[in-house]
Specification:
By secondary structure, the chain is α+β, with helices and mostly antiparallel strands. Helices cover 24% and strands 23% of the residues. The chain is built from 7 helices and 7 strands; from the N terminus they run H-H-E-E-E-E-H-E-H-H-E-E-H-H. The chain has helices at 14-26, 30-33, 90-94, 108-113, 123-133, 171-181, 185-191, and strands at residues 37-45, 48-63, 66-72, 81-88, 105-106, 137-142, 158-162. A 6-stranded antiparallel beta barrel has the order 1-2-3-4-6-7. The model has no long low-confidence stretch (mean pLDDT 92). This is Oil body-associated protein 1A. It holds the Pfam family DUF1264. It comes from Hibiscus sabdariffa. Belongs to the OBAP family.
């Protein structure tokens, strides 16, 4: 269910709004304008599947095999920027070091089960986009734990994972999203039976390697700046 948190702070002042209007007209915002796709799906914390979050991805391609997504807790104007996801092709995922692979999750189940969808996009166009996503892997970090009711992004960044089988997604959460977006996950599942995941199957080291993963903070000595000036190219 989407969160309607009250973020602390004074209301935006008229002067600030005027400056934003001016800079909005002058500056280009090219990275933001390259966003081309809105995906709705669900993430859970890498160490706690009971904490499930509705996640709205706004994605842009770096190239045919890499896309990067801003993640909000809702598609509304007051949506909170809660995280980031990077998606890569199967070919690129297979080049990653083995110690890196568990940090990435597969998308095959999300797509084929119907729980990952493109809000408001007609079926034929959506299907083309989902056919590609079905074969990808994603690495997701959330910074804002809205499911806890935090009204600011507190604590460590969290590694998130995605659903991989039936029975994991809470019925209440699923029904709430279906109602608000006018979709049926079961009907979508029936339409997606021909979609295929990674050519080589889901890698056994993906999705945490079948284990929970949690980030930890550790104190270390901070490396000082070298006395010899560096040349940056």
């Amino acid at each position: 269910m989407s969160n309607h948190l009250t973020v602390p702070g004074e209301p935006t002042q008229t002067a600030t709004s005027l400056v934003e209007t001016a800079t909005g007209a002058i500056q280009g915002f090219r990275p933001i304008k390259s966003i081309h796709q809105h995906l709705c799906a669900f993430h859970f914390y890498g160490y706690d599947m009971t904490r499930q979050v509705e996640s709205h991805h706004y994605c842009a391609h770096q190239n045919e095999e890499v896309r990067q997504c801003l993640i909000y807790d809702s598609p509304g104007a007051d949506g909170k920027l809660i995280g980031l996801e990077y998606m890569v092709s199967e070919n690129l995922f297979l080049t990653l070091p083995d110690e890196e692979k568990p940090l990435w999750h597969s998308h095959e189940y999300e797509v084929k089960s119907g729980v990952l969808f493109l809000p408001g996009v007609p079926g034929p166009i959506e299907r083309h986009g989902l056919d590609t996503v079905c074969k990808t892997y994603g690495k997701t970090i959330h910074f804002w734990q809205v499911d806890k009711g935090d009204n600011l992004p507190l604590g460590l960044p969290q590694l998130m994972m995605a659903l991989t089988r039936d029975g994991q997604l809470y019925d209440e959460l699923a029904k709430d999203v279906e109602k608000r977006f006018g979709v049926s996950f079961e009907k979508e599942r029936a339409k997606r039976t021909e979609l295929r995941g990674p050519v080589h199957g889901i890698h056994p080291l993906a999705n945490g390697g079948g284990k929970g993963l949690i980030p930890k903070l550790r104190e270390v000595d901070c490396k000082p700046v070298d006395s010899v000036p560096r040349v940056f190219v």
